[in-house]
Prior knowledge:
globular, 7-stranded parallel β-sheet, CATH 3.40.50.300, 10-stranded mixed β-sheet, CATH 3.40.50.880, disordered N terminus, 2 domains
Amino acid sequence: MISSMANGKVLKMTDKAPAILVAGSGSxxxxxxxxxxxxxxxxxxxxKVQPFKTGPDFIDPTLHxxxxxxxxxxxxxxxxxxxxxRSLFGHKCSVNAPDxxxxxxxxxxxxxxxxxxxxxxxxxxxxxxxxxxxxxxAESVAAVVHxxxxxxxxxxxxxxxxxxxxxxxxxxxxxxxxxxxxRAPVVGMIPRDAQVSIPSxxxxxxxxxxxxxxxxxxxxxxxxxEGHADIDFLIGIARSRCGRSRRKPPSGxxxxxxxxASRERGRADTSPLLAVARDSAFCFYYEDNLEMLExxxxxxxxxxxxxxxxxxxxxxxxxLGGGYPxxxxxxxxxxxxxxxxxxxxxxxGMPVFAECGGFMYLTSAITDTEGKRWxxxxxxxxxxxxxxxxxxxxxxxxxxxxxxxxxxxxxxxxGHEFHYSDIAPHEGEKPVETVLELGDGRAEGYGVENxxxxxxxxxxxxxxxxxxxxxxxxxxYFEAES
Length: 482
């Protein structure tokens, strides 16, 4: 066992903290609402809940934080690899010392292959609770549950929650059928009229920082699950995993390679200051990416391209994550002093890394869904245009074709792509050099000076050298400007 200091106490590092994983029969089954309800009910009982999210989603973790008050971390084995995911989960279970961990699944239980909720449940040995939307079925629900129970021998369903039940008769028909034909007990029946609505838009639900559900709705979520699900059973199932283990717990810190390499490079005297764009326009970040930067010795300071008029003093690098620049295009375009500051920073050779929405901000303009064109930073000569339908979606593996701020030629990056906009080149413009080659044959990662930007959201769990490369680029800029 590895030990870690937290709150002045020595804690054993183990991934056997009480935990459940809430999976769904498919997208739209109510998995997120039920998960939030479980978290809220546990919180209302005075338990410290550590949330996690299966897959690459940025939005659900912010809702988890809104309910629990704790940072939620993505557990994506397809993007980050099983070793990193197990190590991160074990570390957060130890250092954060929760009473119980609740992991939300992604799409349907088996969707996503190695990145699925089923695969994660098996890898982390977490009991799985299946949420089934029973809107259009009664006795046939048993066939659905039975199929999920028997599809894979290494995955077992510990309990079933029937969601959107129409009436007591509907509940009896569906519940009795599951009890008769399936192994897993029905541990909850959520009435259709008890649902708490969470507003959504083109990229999904509203972010937690926008407070789409207030204290009253959170209280209602807790009451909904307490009234229609067996919370004691869920707690018991979560605790049952602590006494079972087929695998050894992960050893070491998830950022061990970054910490070790940072010490070896002997740059402790230089802690570069990195400005991270964070407001309602730029809000998509993997929290452990930011923690990795800090582990590498980078100091982070947040700024708002929407509301601030200059970059923070003393910064030697910029990180602009994804988000909703198209919804805030007027404010971003109107903040001329910030646009000028960002462009001047890039022109001076400052390392700038931008993903998706951040990339859109660095182009010449954004054309929104109403056809209005808004001037942006103009670091890239082309524009981006919002489309009525999803443009790209999926996991991406990129090979670095030319050395850049995230690494050297031939190294690989792993991430996910999800956007509704496309690039609209200006007629006759000179092409911008791309530095990344994607597995599907496309070129990505647009390089200008020390700027790297594109549509892919990268996670650095499998590529600690990318964090150190970005850090060193910031240090070089700092030393050149000193």
